[in-house]
Amino acid sequence: MVAIGRFNQLEIIKERSVGYFFDGGEDGDILMPKRHQPEHCEVGDFLNVFIFHDAEGRLTATTRIPSAQVGEVAWLKVVEVHRIGAFLDWNMTKDLLVPIREQVELMVPHQSYLVYIHLDEDQRIIGSSRLEKFIQDENQGQFSYGQEVDLLIAEETDLGFKAVVDNSHWGLIYSNEIFQPLHIGQKAKGYIKKLRDDGKIDVALEKPGYSPDRIEELARRIYQRIQLFDGFLPLTDKSPPEVIQDEFQVSKKNFKQAVGKLYKERRILIEEKGLRAVK
């Protein structure tokens, strides 16, 4: 069976005037209408195609890429609202329905919402803003320390930003560990920083622990900035964290490590009021 609402690797088995047909196995032949066809393909080719229902309820294939697949969370804008629910733009020819029952609050045209995409009882692709039904609060062995994950920024809190981790769990990024602008709906790479005793997950935008490559890149940036200011930068490893963050979007700890690297390489002098390039 094909996975509805997701990409499938399927074979073109015949061509007709209406388009290509793919082998859908137990689901039968699946049409890709001509308007969805890519160039340079023929019978016998395997294509990675997205499977959805057309307006008549027939399984249909396309190479068009939606904003998200079934089982994923996306930040989507409402196109229009009807009695049965709201229709959201998810980069497909047919807008995504979020039924009234799946809305935390009634959706408003032109506003954007975090939506989990799933299949209803009739295997139709729909969205839901009731994320608590699908996103788990506690880690149960799915993650490990330092693991790279996909983040979707969901909400700003007193502690920092709440994020959806790998489309399945909630995680928290603490304010004092954020060194770049964040906004609701933003996608980012992150790392598991801590798996707490209560099952909650702390995540970070930088990989935990010492990273030679990251420090090397930061040292390069610092040295370039020193040269840009005629060989002297009015910052030191004793500067306030907020000033360092504004200037380089990094933590004071990483800044000190990069400055220490430049000093050991005898490329800079650390003076009372700043960093000076060695001539």
Write the layout of secondary structure elements.
Elements: E1 7-16, E2 19-23, E3 29-33, E4 46-53, E5 59-62, E6 73-82, E7 85-89, E8 96-99, E9 112-119, E10 125-128, E11 148-156, E12 160-165, E13 169-174, E14 187-195, E15 201-204, H1 212-228, E16 232-233, H2 241-248, H3 252-264, E17 268-271, E18 274-277
Antiparallel strand pairs: 1-2, 1-4, 2-3, 4-5, 6-7, 6-9, 7-8, 9-10, 11-12, 11-14, 12-13, 14-15, 16-18, 17-18
Helix pairs in contact: 1-3
InterPro entries: CvfB_fam (IPR014464), CvfB_S1_st (IPR039566), CvfB_WH (IPR040764), NA-bd_OB-fold (IPR012340), WH-like_DNA-bd_sf (IPR036388)
Protein name: GntR family transcriptional regulator
Pfam family, one: S1_2
CATH superfamily of the largest domain: Winged helix-like DNA-binding domain superfamily/Winged helix DNA-binding domain
Mean pLDDT: 92
Q: What order do the strands of the largest sheet run in, or round the barrel if closed? A: 3-2-1-4-5
Main sheet overview? 5 strands, antiparallel
